[in-house]
Amino acid sequence: MTVTSELPSAFQPEALTPEREATLLASVPTGLLIGGEWVDASDGGTFDVHDPATGQVLATLASATSEDAVAALDAADAAQAAWARTAPRTRSEILRRAFDLVTERAEDFALLMTLEMGKPLTEARAEVTYGAEFLRWFAEETVRDYGRYLTTPEGKNKILVQHKPVGPCLLITPWNFPLAMATRKVAPAVAAGCTMVLKPAKLTPLTAQYFAQTMLDAGLPAGVLNVVSSASASGISCPLLKDSRLRKVSFTGSTPVGKRLMADAAQNVLRTSMELGGNAPFIVFEDADLDAAVEGAMAAKMRNMGEACTAANRFLVHETVAQEFTRKFAAAMRALTTGRGTDPATNVGPLIDGGARDDVHALVSAAIDAGAVAVTGGAPVDGPGYFYQPTVLANVPNTAAILGQEIFGPVAPITTFSTEEEAITLANASEYGLASYLYSRDFNKLLRVAEQIEFGMVGFNAGVISNAAAPFGGVKHSGLGREGGSEGIAEYTTTQYIGINDPYTGR
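Given the sequence above, the corresponding structure tokens read:
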């Protein structure tokens, strides 16, 4: 599996004893962050967070109610005007301090993610590096959110265009990248001058709680970032989306939930950013470097145990190289070690819960019943935790359900094509359009295909393409809007035009 093999200098691993885990968990705030204070839920309610590798309870957090959600919006609304007027340099320096603190606390963040989400520590450390980079990137972008001043075409007046913060935002993050999805939303909101109510996923809220405290430690004023972890997602989103003070919702998660949020957001004509489902094709042409393609396939498929919207979901391989690619890919998958993410030997952690594992196995079983062959894997792992064998399926029929929906697990279905046109048709035969991956030595072919496939992101001979400096997002049912890059801050601003009389005539 291709993951970062050398640790950045900031990482100073400690012995991973039960005492070390308990000490870290005890340091994570367990309340709701409202107006700069950690408080209990208004009704005293709580919920448990579990270790998917063991099923054991890691921590118990306050479970926000609808009343708590409104109180968080009260705090965000009260802080909005002053925060919008805060100098860009001040906001930039807060983000830079946050980057430094996250980097200093990298081992804590990595271990928290491994405990609550299951990913191996090597991958968790890579996410800390990736997630922290959004803080550094938007610290630099904060002071570069340019407007413009120009003369009208007929020369009679002047045009002044400025960008203003959109206002209080609801940020809803998923469970699979607990730090990076929080930083990818919080950092541009801070840069633009927006206040926030953050709702982390109930399965993995600990990292977001720890990150929120880190933002306070970096100097973020009270009320700018509020956190309402809760066992009830609708209990948070429903009252806020109906409140006229909320001006934007940013959501990362499933397409069905995103559609419901967009419908609710329409009632108040809210700005929306939706990063939804994916069904990424991984296309291997007959002239591809197969060793490089297998390496890229491992990265694109097995990052996060396949629990990523960008994960390669359909392997479309030219019929002349399909047998060799399948053999090499299966050998690489077979060599992986499954286990708890804190074990240095592990490179495949558990799935997030029992339901997720059952869903993955149902897709695999249905594909085999339809004629697919399990070259390796194909079953859950016995014992505690929610583990599934790394799996390669060959001869998958194009009609199989596994090719039509997100797998969100360590399963790679392979089908074949014979022409470039057929590869394009198969790639586009999906309602989703987030990430895609192309392998060929012919650059002109890569460009031709990229222009014809309907995806927001395309990797040329690369299995991992996410980067804080690049616009992340998709088309069709994969959502709208972009996160990261120079485009990321624009999602949190509105454009205001001011018409000015010709200063030379005074009219």
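The two ends are 69 Å apart (CA to CA). Try to locate this feature in the token string yourself.
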